Amino acid sequence: MTKTNGKARARLAAPARSAPANPRPEEDAAEAGRRTRLNPHERERQIVQGAVNFFAEVGFSGQTRELAKRLGVTQGLLYRYFPSKEALLDRVYQEVFEAKWNPHWDEWLEDQDQPLRERLIRFYADYARVIHTYEWVRIFLLSGMAGLDINQRYLRLVRKRIYPKIIKMLRQEFGLSPREEGVLSRQEEDLMLNLHGMVFFIGIRKWIYGFDLQGSTQDLVSQQIDLVLYGARAILTETP
Q1: Closest Cα partner for 80 from 92, 88, 90, 72?
Q2: CA 125, chain centre distance (Å)
Q3: 137 class by beta-carbon count within 10 Å (0-12 exposed, 13-18 middle, 19+ buried)
Q4: Percent helix, strand and coil across the chain, each rounded to 5?
Q5: What is the pLDDT of residues 75-91, one digit of tens each?
Q6: This prediction's pTM
Q7: Alpha-carbon distance 185 to 236, whole Å?
Q8: Fewer beta carbons below 10 Å: N end or C end of the chain?
Q9: H or E segment at 108?
Q10: Distance between CA atoms of residues 88 and 52, nearest Å
Q11: pLDDT tens-digit readout, 14-33
């Protein structure tokens, strides 16, 4: 066996020299940002999509400093595009909820050539496709738990554009007199909350509980529509 002299042993045992500490950690992020040259529109899109992913993962207590680090930019650069966290969250709302709104939904629901059940299934199957994503489900739930207005803003949008339309369709289907435009009874409001909630819960089962969904989204939505239609006649008929 070849003997190792003392100097060699010293070299083997010596710890690797560590790199000098960076006194300004943000320099690494700034350098990463310089390496990736983006025009202002691309940079804004990068920040917005990164914010959607970030808040969906960590919740709304997440700090913009950490977001900037993940994006490889300085916090100062982030604030050049969004001067406050509130401004960034407003853009997250627009990106996740308003931008995903399908303008064809109104047409599908109002298509008198199709039976009511088919119209509802077509609408809610596509609606489920939009909302059953990791980001949509988690941002909706986490924003509510954080006491933010994001989910309430979206619910106000749905109550204004979807609830009255579907109740009007149901009343027509069951031969009931129409209501004043946009006015719902408490029972009708609850009926729509239950219908929307059942469709949304399919997404919770996937992205919160981690369950594998048995069957296609269309099949699951159809089941919920049939349950609601089965009981809707009695509920609406009893509504004063």
Answers
A1: 88
A2: 17
A3: buried
A4: 70, 0, 30
A5: 999 999 999 999 999 99
A6: 0.79
A7: 9
A8: N
A9: helix 105-110
A10: 10
A11: 334 343 444 444 445 445 44
